[in-house]
Design goal:
About 35% of the residues lie in helices and about 20% in strands. With about 350 residues, it is α/β, with parallel strands linked by helices. It has one domain: pyruvate-formate lyase- activating enzyme (Alpha-Beta Horseshoe). Strands 4-5-8-9-10-11-12-16 form an 8-stranded mixed sheet. Helix 7 runs parallel beside helix 9 and helix 9 crosses helix 10. The structure holds iron/sulfur cluster. Iron/sulfur cluster binds next to loops. The site of iron/sulfur cluster (SF4) has 10 residues, from loops.
Length: about 350
């Protein structure tokens, strides 16, 4: 992975922030420039990192839709964009600011988080940072995890999920996490990784990192999303599952999610232009209730049911869930609907309680 930032653009309001201090220390050779405001620019530069003052809410609900079962996840918005450049990435549609942006006012982020978690002690918060960017992509230089993980360790009603396609785990090594942080990796079949995730680490590197953090006491999660249907997909996904289960003890895995490839129609011309070698958009798709194009239902059921069977052969009790699917698909794949078990958020809360021993008092 070649993604060390070399040009750091900083908004005046963040000039003296702790984050910028850390970036200056960890990136001594980088060129820093302070400007009043960073304006939107369509020019993509994978070496550029922008530090801006964020004025919105840092904690947001996962953008589920009412048509599909949503997991009730909260997103901690600490930055946006990603330089890993996966062909299918939805962030490509955010054309007006294509470069990595991190929010410099992290004190405000922690203030909001502290307030929110204290207001609703009765509920369990499952919070992740890997929705609008990769959770660990710039962590070697921002050291954000070194503040975040110990913060969550002290929250009785919250768990943190760091989701990544990197192996940037060194900052996690000696942290006092008290079992409140899940380290999570997105996984895919090796041929898909090679063609569609060219700048990310290999599956072997991701699993080696997972094995290490498990040795440091962290719990794990894995996301097969997007699952891609291609000739030989069964062999591809079987291989990655075999590697996964020979790398880590399944008792450390809190959940595994499955999500078949889906995309807004506007993304198609962007993928064609930016990644002419990609084949992800040439499957058989229909438009779903959320306006996204997704594989025909039979294909989705086949992908999911096949994966669930393989996972269940190894561990019958891991929480496996589908991302953004409806009642009928759940019934066909699992033989039950999340509603019969209190809803998908309750199923995931249960997994946190059972495998992490955390439940709100
Ligand atoms: S790692 Fe995730 S956020 Fe980054 S480019 Fe790939 S899909 Fe997008």
């Amino acid at each position: 992975m070649r993604n060390k930032p070399s040009k750091i653009l900083v908004e005046e309001a963040c000039r003296t922030s702790r984050l910028v201090e850390k970036l200056r220390r960890n990136l001594p050779a980088a060129q820093f420039e302070v400007v009043e405001t960073i304006s939107d620019s369509p020019l993509r530069d994978p070496r550029r990192l922008e530090v801006v003052q964020f004025r919105g809410r840092f904690l947001k609900s996962c953008p589920g839709t009412r048509h599909y079962f949503c997991c009730g996840y909260q997103i901690l918005h600490f930055g946006v964009q990603c330089s890993l450049n996966c062909t299918y990435c939805i962030l490509q549609a955010y054309l007006n600011h294509p470069n990595l942006r991190i929010f410099g006012n992290q004190e405000d982020l922690f203030r909001e988080l502290r307030q929110e978690l204290a207001t609703h002690r009765e509920r369990l918060y499952r919070i992740g940072t890997g929705e609008f960017t990769d959770s660990l992509l710039v962590d070697p230089w921002t050291e954000f995890s070194r503040d975040l993980v110990p913060f969550f360790a002290k929250q009785p009603n919250a768990v943190l999920e760091l989701k990544t396609k990197t192996d940037f785990i060194d900052n996690l090594r000696d942290l006092d996490h008290r079992g409140h942080t899940l380290a999570a990796w997105s996984l895919n079949a090796a041929p898909i990784r090679r063609r569609e995730e060219t700048a990310a680490t290999t599956i072997k590197q991701r699993l080696a990192a997972a094995k290490k953090v498990a040795q440091w006491g962290y719990k794990l999660a894995f996301h097969f999303d997007p699952m891609i249907e291609y000739p030989g997909w069964r062999e591809g996904y079987r291989e990655v599952l075999d590697r996964l289960f020979s790398s880590v003890d399944t008792s450390r895995i809190v959940w595994i999610s499955l999500g078949a490839f889906r995309f807004m129609p506007e993304l198609k011309p962007i993928i064609q232009r930016r990644h002419p070698g990609s084949t992800v958009i040439y499957g058989e798709f229909i438009r779903g209730l959320d306006g996204k194009l997704r594989y025909f239902r039979d294909i989705r059921v086949e992908l999911y049911a096949w994966m669930v069977d393989r996972i269940r052969e190894v561990d019958a009790h891991i929480c496996v869930y589908l991302c953004m699917e409806g009642e009928d698909i759940w019934q066909q794949v699992f033989g039950f609907s999340p509603q019969e078990r209190g809803g998908l958020p309750a199923m995931l809360d249960k997994a946190v309680e059972t495998r992490m021993g955390i439940a709100p008092r």
